[in-house]
Amino acid sequence: MRLLTLAWADTGFCGSVFGSRTGLTPGGRGLIESCEDLGVVVDVSHASDAAFADVCALAARPFIASHSNCRSLCPNPRNLTDQQIRILGERGGVMGINLGSGFLSREFHERTLGVRAEFFRSVEAGEKTFDEAGALASAAVAGVPRPPLSLVVEHVRWAVNVGGEDCVGLGGDLDGVDSTPVGPRWRRRLSPYCRAPRQRWPQLLASR
């Protein structure tokens, strides 16, 4: 294992941005120490701002935010503040630009706040399974206009200006978002990877 993501929802290691938003637990601190010892990269995407700060205090090695954008451009709490981006750059870490519409566009994010809130509420209440809630959320989001692909460039430029070019990559999140920017050409080229099981990705890449 080369990389470990601390949270999606709340875990025994830390709070998430859509959950309790608490920092690292004692178990989480032990996990970071183990990752440091083993050379496993820590991923703070989905982890709370408090957990991000705790990781900064504990980690000596670079860490990453694998699929998060710039909160200054889109106020999704899963995105990074300028201070967090700057810290990643200073620590030799990387942020992967997320291609989901709700991470790129302020308008899209604000229009779908209720959809996301209902998704988490229904799952946490046990009223829906993850897949059932996800299907309902996908249907609700389908009617919201998709943002332009140029927003990806805006987030890249912002992140480079704040954290430096070496801290910016592409995170995608194509297996976890319901909407991506307008741009049929790039979607067609990426669609085989989105549809295929992950075990086939090396085969697909080798055929390019």
Please provide a written account of the structure.
The protein has about 210 residues and is mainly alpha-helical. It has ten helices and five strands, in the order βαβαβαβαααααβαα. Strands 3-4-5 form a three-stranded parallel sheet, with helices on one face. The protein has a two-stranded parallel sheet with strand order 1-2. The model has no long low-confidence stretch (mean pLDDT about 90).
Short description:
The protein is mainly α and 208 residues long. The chain is built from ten helices and five strands; from the N terminus they run βαβαβαβαααααβαα.
Q: Assess the beta-strand content as a share of residues.
A: 5-15%
Tell me the radius of gyration. Answer: 17 Å
Strand order of the largest sheet: 3-4-5
End-to-end span in angstroms?
Answer: 26 Å
Shape: globular
Largest sheet: 3 strands, parallel
Which class best fits the helix and strand makeup?
Answer: mainly alpha
* CATH fourth-tier homologous superfamily of the largest domain: Metal-dependent hydrolases
- What is CATH's topology name of the largest domain? TIM Barrel
Counted up, domains total 2
> Roughly what is the average pLDDT, rounded to an integer?
89
Q: Which H/E pattern describes the elements?
A: EHEHEHEHHHHHEHH
The CATH C-level name of the largest domain is: Alpha Beta
Question: What is the tally of beta strands?
Answer: 5
Helix-residue proportion:
40-55%
Instruction: Report low-confidence residues grouped into runs of 5 or more.
Output: none
Tell me the number of helical segments per DSSP (H or I, 4 or more residues long).
10
Just name the CATH architecture of the largest domain.
Alpha-Beta Barrel
